[in-house]
Amino acid sequence: MSFSSQGFSSDIVRALTECGYEKLTPIQQQAIPHIRRGEDILAHAQTGTGKTAAFSLPILQQLLDNPKPRSKANVRALILAPARELADQIANNIESYSKYTDVSVAAVYGGAKMSSQERKLQAGVDVLVATPGRLIEHLELGNVSLANLEVLVFDEADRMLDMGFIGAIRSIMNGLSAHPQTLLFSATSSAQMNALAQDYLRKPKRIIVNAENSTASTVAHVVYPIEEERKRELLSELIGKKNWKQVLVFVNYKETANEVVKELKLDGIKAVLCHGDKAQSARRRALDEFKTGKARVLVATDVAARGLDIQGLPHVVNYDMPFLAEDYVHRIGRTGRAGQQGHAVSFVSRKEELTLVQVEKLIQQRIRRVVLDGYEPESRDALLVKMHSKPAYKNRQGRTNNANESNAESQSSAEGRVRLMRALKRRSKK
């Protein structure tokens, strides 16, 4: 099915052709007709399935069909995203789709100067992409008005809830004078997200492209059981022996990221960092080096890597297993995109076996295990038997959102929660 068959303007179709878009993806085929009819939708789709085009193209066409003069600070369409990288990526995509139209697009997020963002908003914009925290700042300063908002999109809604943005989201929604068409997109599902949809969506059309919490069929999964202290050694060996050219490595801590990059460089492997302590400009520079092949490895924490779009990325490595099983779905969603083959590798120490079991339960798939000679973990079978016999294993739950977390991006991230837990443990020992 072609984009021209959906009634998009010739200017949009021309831009899509230049972007290399030929046929609609499944999420686009299902979502675009409902959005064109003005219906609210609740869509479950994995990353890399084309969901940005699925919601942005109908919005652009709606703006073109109903042209209105821009007015000070006014916004016609708002797209909320959980992280600055994702917001920037979405805005860039929409600018590409609308390059032959006069639709104005702006992005506002933390880590960038308020003054430059304020100047963009003064004349009013047709499409605004924002992170919740920074949007509230601009609303409080009167830099932006949602009084005439026509369309509202939540992209990666599950990630916004995980990051503690529920308070900010409700504050934004409660400040709306009218009810815009509302579109909610998510890769995973949770009770809190369903409650959000129930509160703010009107008779939504539910769209499920793949089974909820599933992973792309184009991704091959493998697990390497290993002792924690030997992970860095194994990572260097796999990259070297298998001649991996482009590898995105996920870790749970900034300190770990620094150590891994240092180790890789000692082994002659060019690696760059992407975590919360790095300035936005440094993170963008690291990503550019990785995309262009100047760096072979990008080591990132979850908070810094959300929304990264790297075309044709062949390898994702979970150096640390994620804190939440749902985060596994988001991490490996960086590879195997747009029908291409991807490779998801996980290093699992003995203390991470329970997380692996939760991941397999979530994605309903048994992951192949490979034990490399010389890297065999000790007493793994005994640990598994002991673990499965514990009541905590049977009763363990997956995602647990905290609605009372801070709305600030840096404080509501998984890294912030881990630092808090560490501090509490230190106090208890004193």
Automatic annotation (TrEMBL):
- Give UniProt keywords alphabetically: ATP-binding, Helicase, Hydrolase, Nucleotide-binding
CDD domains associated with the record:
DEADc, SF2_C_DEAD
- Using the record's annotation, list all stretches that form the DEAD-box RNA helicase Q domain: 1-29
**MF terms (GO), sorted A to Z:** ATP binding; hydrolase activity; nucleic acid binding; RNA helicase activity
- Coiled-coil annotated spans: none
The UniProt regions of compositional bias labelled Basic residues, in chain numbering, are 419-430
Residue stretches making up the Helicase C-terminal domain: 218-383
Gene Ontology cellular-component annotations: cytosol
Location of the motif Q motif: 1-29
Region (Disordered) residue ranges read: 390-430
**Residue stretches making up the Helicase ATP-binding domain:** 32-207
Any Pfam family: Helicase_C
Q: Where is the composition biased (Low complexity)?
A: 401-415
> What family name appears in the similarity comment?
Belongs to the DEAD box helicase family.
Q: Name it.
A: ATP-dependent RNA helicase RhlE
Look up and give the organism this protein is from: Vibrio ezurae NBRC 102218
